[in-house]
Each structure stands twice: as C-alpha cells, then as structure tokens.
Amino acid sequence: MSQLPPAPNADFSQSAQFIQDVRERIAKVVVGQDVVVERLLISLFTGGHILLQGVPGIAKTLLASALSKAMQLDFSRIQFTIDLLPADILGSEILDQSTSTFRTEKGPIFTHLLLADEINRAAPKVQGALLEAMQERKVTIGGDPFVLPAPFLVIATQNPVEQAGTFELPEAQLDRFMLLHRLDYPTPDEERVILRRNAALGVQRRDGGAVVATEFDVIDDSPVGGIEDIIAAMEAVQSVHVSDTFLEHVVELVGRTRKHPDIELGGSPRAGISLIKASRARALLFGRNYVIPEDLFALAEDVVLHRLRLNYEALADGKTTAAVLQEMLAHMGSGDEANRNDHRAAPGTNGSRVTAEA
Amino acid sequence: MVSWLIFPLQLALAVPTVSPHVPVTQDAAAQDAAIPVGVPRWSREVVLKGTALKVRPADIETPLIVRIDSDSPHGTDRRYDFEYYGLEPGTYNLLDFLQRADGSEMGPLPPLQIHIESHLPAGQVKPNPVTQGTTPDLGGYARTLWILGIGWGLGTLIWWLKGRQKVQAARALEDAPPPTLAERLAPLVERGVRGELPLEEQARLELILIAIWRKRLGIQDLPAAEVLVHLKQHAEAGVLLGELERWLHSPDSAAGGGAVDPAQLLAPYRNLTAEDWDREWEATAPGADALGQDG
Q1: Which chain A residue is nearest to residue B176, measuring alpha carbons?
Q2: Does residue B50 fall inside a structural domain?
Q3: Domain A240-340: what homologous superfamily?
Q4: Which of B248, B273, B280 has the highest number of chain A CBs within 10 A, making it the mutation to test binding with A?
Q5: ipTM (interface pTM)
Q6: Among A23, A103, A282, B204, which is most exposed with the fewest C-beta within 10 angstroms?
Q7: What is the pLDDT of residues B7-61, one digit of tens each?
C-alpha cells in the first residue's frame, strides 16, 4: 500500500520513556505550555527549527533552558538588537598578541540549543547569517568552515506587538523555520499555579549575599537523558509509518494553499515535507508508530501558516491567514466546489450540506 | 444586246469579290465570307454609275431581300448604302435585285456578289433541335458574398446560443444546492464496502466522515486542531475514526494484516440519505439546531 521505504526498526519504548521524563522535568518549572514543549521536541527530533511568536514574559527562555538541562545539551541565548553584527553570533578571528597569530573565537551559535530572542530586532544581514547557518549547519569564520554541533536547534522568538524598529522576516526566510508557534497567555488556572510557585521561591544565598530566587534557580541540573536518547528518538521518528492516504491529505492541503483565491503565496514543497516530518515526530510523542489526520490538523497552523501570504483583496476584506487556513482545513475532502466562498445551504435542509463545513 | 449584258456578269463571276474600284466600307473579308441565311449585312458607300437605282419589286419566292438605306449624288454617279439578307443559300449579284428608278437600262456595272449559305445540311428544312447547354453560375461574386455573410451570421448565432447555454448551465449549477455530505459519502461507502476504493477516494472518505461527524456534533466552529480530539471523545465517532485510522494509516493494515474490515466498518453508513443524517443528527444532538446553521 505505502510507497514509502520500509521504516527502520526503532525502540519506541525507550524513546517514549525519555520523552515522558523530559516533559515531566519541564513541567516542574514551566506551568502549562504543553503544546510548546511538544513543538520544541518535534523540532529537536526532526532537525527543524522553531520560531515562537508571543509577548514577553511567557517563559520562553525558561523553557529552552529547562529543555537543554533536561537533555544535557549546550544552551546559548542571544538577544537580537539593531546593532548586533554577524560576527557577534558566528564568531571571529582574534589576534593573539602573545603568539602573533590569529585564533578563531567561536560565537554563541556553537551550541546545541540556541535561543535567538527577538530575532526581528536585528538587521537583515544578521538574520541572514543566522538563517544560513540554520540551513547549512555550518559557518565560515575567516575563510575556514566550522560545522555546528549536532543536534542543533534554533529557538527564535519574535514579539508580535512592538513592531517599531524591527525588521520583519520575509516569507522566504520564514520558510526555513519548520514551525512557527504562536504562544498564548496561560489559562487562569495555570496562572494561579505560576503565581503560587513564584511566591514560594524565596531568597537564594550566594557569595555571602543573597538574591531573590527565580524559576531558573529551581531548574534541576541533573539530566533525564542525553544525546544518545535524542538520537534514538530521531531514529524512532524515522520509523513512524506514513500511509499513502496521509500523503494524499498533505498533498491536498498544500495544493489548496496554492489555489485558494485569497492567497498570493501558497505552501512550498518544503511545507509538505515539514508537515510529514512534524507529523511523524508528533505521532512518536503520542506513542503511535503511524501518523493520522489528527497530526496533520494539529500541526497545520504551525507548519503552514507562516508560509502563506494573503493577497491585497483578502487583506482589504479584513481576512486573516489563520481564518483562511481554517476554512481550507474544514473543506478538505469535499472536492473543488468546496473552495467557493459563498456556499449557502440549500433551502429545506438543516445544513448537512458541504457548505455547512465553512 | 444580251451579250452586252452577259459580258459584265461573266466578268463579275470571274472576279469573286466586289470590284476594287468600288468604295465599300464593309471590309472585303466580311464581304467574301459566307453570310448565314436570314442574317442582315450592309454594304456602304457603294458608288455606281448611272441614274438612281431602286429595289426591284420582289415576290414571295425571292431568295434575297435588298434595301437601299441611303442614296446620294456622288459627282456624276450615285452613292448607295445597301442592306440585305438571304433567304436561300447561293451566290447572288445585288444588281440583279435593283433597277433604274427612271426605268432605263442598268448599263454596264461591276457585279456586287454575295454568298449566302445555310448552316443546315442540304435538304434540311426544319431548324436543328435545341441542345441543352450548361447553365452559367448564377450570382457570381455577389452570391459568394451572400453565402459567406449568411454563414457568418449563422455561425455567430450558433456560437452565441452555445455560449448562452453554457452560461445558463453554469448558472444552474451555481444555483443548484451543492451535493450533501451524504450524497458525497454514498458512492465512497459503496466502493469501500466492496473493497474497490482507490487511494484518493480513501482520503476523501476519511475526511468526509470527519466532516459529517463534525457537523453532526455541531463543532464546526472549533479550530481544526481540536476537532479530532473532540470527535475521538465521542462514543460512536471515536470508535469509527479510530477504526478508520487503523484501516487507512496503520502499517499493519498496509502490510495486509489489519484486523479492520471496511465492509463492517462502513455498513452503518450505507444508503443513508441527507434526511437520514438530519434525523440522526437531531436525535444525537437534541437542541443543536442553533449550531446546525451555516457559518
């Protein structure tokens, strides 16, 4: 039935335990945000990168730090600003006066987990340097190529509200992020837990003095797994079965983004590839050895949405990319006629017609 | 006297044409040429000596009809224009059919010979039967223009009518209600039960079943990411979708070892009309009418 090559055998139970441990460890310091953790693990296991879009103060850095410590991964954080230079990220050659020779000083990009905070605040030249490194997984300093560590995951963030003095990432560069996840505020229940936990942090004595403890101080430094576990999970992802029916769903969705009358720029083939990759990783996270439509519907917004651009007519009509994507997802499987925007239920029916899915 | 009269005639017979000294406007070739019976000919500016001439009275048997068109003085002579046509084939001298107006003798005059011949064979009295010729093209260029014009007009009319039909058909299709989910589902279920569902239609079947249950439970407004989570919590939909996923997506099923029987799985969905769906929906989700509205 399937046209895909047979999947290699993988130990699902080992990966499942590892994933469960990581999630529990992160949950100790980060309240809620299960979906974000899921997306981060998907990115890590598939070799993709993730862009988190949300307001400041919703534990993005804490999440990345907790993830790196749980997995015993190196972690760097770069605050992107307008005066940042590519060398500040990649590294540079420095003249060692003692030996009168140049030595290479590697930048913060040489890490496993890189948090690129507010990536849209840096100049396009810096954004380009990072995105190129993300794709090629190597950088060139002073003419010498350097391979980045493996695994290598960029967790970039951008603030959707303060747009003054920012450089919006163009669709071509956004396309290099496998996932763009839109963070939301915690629910009231989660917020209560956050506040209670924070209130119980107390003071941390240090170097004869004391500082008010933060959530970073309570992150358990002992890892629940290491790179070998990540590699096992990556192999397990590759063994997740993708049926031809699922491929049809992906092809239909990507095709619809290219034909929709409100969309100027549709999904690239990379969008379809990313959907499959992310769906396999999600299936592993949910303990399945095959992907199902639920994976597609759950990931479509994060994988596809940032690759689409509405045309001027749709923007003038006040439509949003998210609404158009939801409309496409609702119409999937209902044939080409479902693309019409003016569907109305026929008189005398209560709406069981295809139009009702709009 | 007779010999005096015969001599010029003999002389004229010896000369086959009108004497060269006689100014005749009709060219010699035409004069020599045989003249068909009944076809008029003219000899103009013929100058003859002597007094004025007039046509000799003719009877019913005369073989040649002669008429003097004009007669005018020409010095001491006279100048004539003759018109004549033959009734019997033969060679004639025009002078034989003239006489002096004053009744005097004709005197020695050069002969004015003509030859009349018949196109009919010798002995044939009645005319040849009429032969049927080819009819020439009627109309010519004007007719061609008319044909082209009418063809263009007809073509335009047909094109316009066809286009109108297409527009009307498209409008009718647009005005027609879209097929119901039940109508879309029915053929897929039938083929699925028979195990004849191709790959693309398997995908459609799955998505339509999701759409149907989404509609049936009134959760159209939920984001797509939450729909399946919600559906799987439903007792009937959850079982159906779970089995469907095992059938269509599981590697066991792909290897041919799946325990899912499509015929059994889809049996409850056979022969369901839109009305059936509506009734079941109302029974399943009482009070969900508000959710059932489009939008």
Answers
A1: A346
A2: yes
A3: Magnesium chelatase subunit I, C-Terminal domain (1.10.8.80)
A4: B248
A5: 0.77
A6: A103
A7: 444 544 444 344 334 444 444 444 557 888 889 999 999 999 999 999 999 888 8
